[in-house]
Design goal:
single chain, disordered N terminus, Nucleoside Triphosphate Pyrophosphohydrolase, binds zinc ion, alpha+beta
């Protein structure tokens, strides 16, 4: 099929940036990814299906395009970080297909060659997998699990400011990658200890969310403070404190799992204490 005859791509990515329509003069930016317009696929770009075979389910039809780093946006469009759409989304599931597209683009870029024998990889026809034509090695999209830990202490929760937080003043719950040889629950205890110096227990599952930067799966837990005073490590976490629903720092956007867990905890705390307080700021 000539490149100009490609089926339209629902999402186009340039690294972690997704194609969006430029705001019209004086208008608000459109907070949604835009399809690649009816233009030829740029030189060096890769068009791939969002799903193949039995994995094609509602919401996962169509294809995505990954373009080389210097590719300009088509007229009337611009490249915008996918994270800005996640922050602006009013609901988590809105951005999950785009998250899948970015995760697959990242995985495809990292698996052009077979990790076992070094031959150029091919694609398996009936599922999203890389198949080495030389040695038969099969590789599925990689997911790196990470925990989100909401720590409760009486009627307050732990919020902390990450050194790399993209939004000034924003604080969130703690996060960290699961290491080989540990369970999610072990990871919650270790991450909280390493990042803020306290001991926690009773980690209980609270929800999950894809996080394609580049290939994470965020798994949320609530846990309880057991002992210790907050002592941020000064590297990953530069500020931490205990907050209730009536007074707290700027929170992550409503499209994030961390925000959902914080809101849920605050709702429970309010119901328990009878406090009726408006939730202040939201990240832009
Ligand atoms: Zn191979």
């Amino acid at each position: 099929m000539p490149s100009s005859m490609h089926p339209p791509a629902r999402f186009a990515f340039r690294g972690p940036e997704v194609l969006a329509r430029s705001p019209v003069q004086g208008g608000e930016p459109d907070p949604r990814p835009a399809p690649w317009p009816q233009l030829p696929v740029p030189e060096g770009a890769e068009l791939f299906p969002l799903a193949v075979g039995a994995a094609i389910r509602p919401g996962l039809e169509g294809s995505a395009l990954a373009v080389p780093p210097e590719t300009p946006a088509p007229e009337g469009h611009e490249w915008a970080p996918l994270r800005s759409f996640i922050n602006a989304a009013s609901e988590e599931h809105e951005w999950f297909p785009a998250a899948r597209a970015l995760a697959l683009a990242n995985w495809r870029a990292a698996t052009r060659f077979c990790g076992r024998c070094g031959s150029p990889n091919g694609d398996k026809a009936d599922e999203s997998a890389r198949l080495c034509p030389a040695c038969g090695a099969l590789q599925y999209p990689r997911l790196s699990p990470a925990v989100l830990a909401l720590v409760r202490k009486g009627d307050r929760i732990l919020l902390a400011r990450n050194a790399r937080s993209p939004v000034a003043g924003m604080q969130s719950i703690l996060a960290g990658f699961v290491e080989p040889g540990e369970t999610f629950e072990d990871c919650v205890v270790r991450e909280v200890r390493e990042e803020v110096g306290i001991e926690v227990a009773n980690a209980r599952y609270a929800g999950s969310q894809p996080w394609p930067f580049p290939d994470s799966l965020m798994v949320g837990f609530e846990c309880d403070w057991v002992s210790g005073e907050l002592a941020p490590d000064g590297v990953e976490i530069v500020e931490a404190g205990w907050y209730g629903p009536d007074a707290h720092p700027l929170l992550p956007g409503p499209g994030s799992l961390s925000r959902r867990l914080v809101e849920r905890a605050f709702t429970q705390i309010r119901a328990r204490s009878g406090v009726r307080a408006a939730v202040p700021g939201t990240a832009p």
